[in-house]
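dumping the sequnces here before i forget
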Amino acid sequence: MTPLNLTTIDFSWLAILPLIALSVGAIVVMLAGTRVDDEDSAALGFIVLVALLAAFLLTMFELGQNTAAFRGSLAVDDYAVFFEVIIIIATALTVAMSLEYAADAGLAGAEYYALVAFAALGMLLMAAAGDLIIIFLGLETMSIAVYALAGFIRRDAKSNEAAIKYFLLGAFSTGFLLYGIALLYGATGSVRLTAIHASIAARTAVNPLLLLGLGMLLIGFGFKVAAVPFHMWTPDAYEGAPTPITAFMAVAVKLAAFAGFLRIFFTSLDPLATEWSPVLWALAVLSMTAGNVIALVQSNIKRMLAYSAIAHAGYALVGMAAANGREAGGAVLYYLLAYAFTSLGAFGVVVALDRGAESHAQIDDYRGLARDHPGLAAAMAVCLLSLTGVPPLAGFVAKFYVFAAALNAGFTGLVIIAVLNSVVSAYYYVGVIVAMYMREGGVAVESMSRRPGLLISIAVGVAGVIALGIYPQPYMGAAVNAFASALGRPALHAVSMLP
Amino acid sequence: MSLGLFFFLAVLAALSALGVIAQRNPVHCLLALAVNLLDIGVMFVGLGAVTVGFLQIIIYVGAIMVLFLFVIWLLNLQAEGFSGYLGLKLFGAIGAAALAAEFATLFLHTSRISTPGASALTQGTITTLGRHLFSDYLVAFEITSLLLLAAVVGAIGLARRPPLSAGLSAAAGSDLATAESPRQMSRSMSVSAEQQTTTPRAGSA
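..and the predicted 3d for all of it:
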């Protein structure tokens, strides 16, 4: 028996150092947590912030590398860096929002921050995955951490409901995903994305196992990005979860799921695009329409934003259904970037009104906010207008790029439906603005000066919305580059379990 | 593995899986699940994946089934009287029939199902498994440990004693308010946890 030669495993510090930084951060948080009371848990949050900063700096070294590591398990390309940077920023803002919230609500501090770090680690894996196993493990690490986080307000029946619903439906959808992965492996003989691509491209007749696997993957990712008809868990999970975790689910989780979704479908399943593009078309139409129409009748702002998140997944799917080149794929990435900042800003304001113990998440609670807290109201208004797609904010530019890409690809009908949906969405977004500026008598909001972490995260969100809207070129350039790096990746090691 | 044996095992697996969901008595469901898992273990061994087959039997049939059994005894679960909603059942049946028809069409209209696999017979030893785990799937192997750690932390976060400061300050009197360290607090916890169940906190609806 020959000994295993460990020098051939393609070891790369570059690819795993960001992951190591986050896991060390999580473990330090757990150790420090034994000495810190729950009401002082902000100190633990700072440890996670330091770990995130380290991960961010280490990720920066991956820029422009465009290689793979560990025999193709991990991709080190600009696509991974693009998503990793957004995920790290979104996680950092989530932690900043939580600094005061978690302590006020008496959440279990050490576990809370450790789980946020673990979830971020899973998301980074999804962004950098080079094979289906890594995507699955990243998805599970992220999901299991977030299932638990959703139920962290344990005295609150709604939080418990959110956790159990999210967990059961999430586990069910993971089953679909795993079955799809197994079928793809059975049909192509490999779990590496590049090897799967090569196997499918070389095939003349379509293998039914491949189509079944493709369908299962679509269902699995449909759940994770909350596309209709796989969205049933979304409003309840978003409403019951602690509000910073709702923001985390709406932004970071969704982006990580899209990172894996886009990478699988554009780098290894793209020879089957004629099969999956119509399915995405239907999912996009259903998500936009159902999301926007149901959002019209919501009275709770977290539920409203949940349906809005469903609708926005639909807009991103418009771009995905139509994406057939660098520009179009870049438009989807830019859309997700703009959505991330906008949503984080909006949820930041929701956190400001929601004090954990007593939840003020009804839209009526926002009445008269502009009089007492003009800054908060203005931030909320900017984010809501960006979600609607009003120029010159990020949401407008993002929608413009996505719709233009879809038109170029000949999806005129889809774009008409999407634009009509944007018009419908204006009604409920503007409804909140009207309540803030033209109505009287909401709830008293605690002064923001006591909550610097929350203030900073709202400010960063709003700044991002404005910057992405006024000067989009560099970010769009980065998005196009990132997408191209995923497509034009040099051939990785095609490793399979077979001889 | 001969085709006849495979079909026998496959049919048995499907029947026992049906048994898991169709029976009312939880212990009977559990027995059907044990049959199912054993059956799949045998299938693995038959395909040459000896290690995986035995792990399946040891871990699932051995450890996890016993855990399930303990939980059922601990909670004293009885046969369920729940009959379900007829409409939902009808909806489910129509959906299942449509899916079956779809699969049948898909498989009938394609010339053949090809898999590049089928050479697993020489691959299922513990040596090959170890080689793949520590070379091709090294990252995946290491990440699995982090995944399990995250699951443990999540379970502790949800199941550990209620957060002292916020959960109990209103209900549980002054003995906690004067306690100085978390360790002191946890000593008085066992008493106050009972109090909490009897005095629901205001605003927890």
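Chain A touches chain B through 68 residues (CB under 8 Å).
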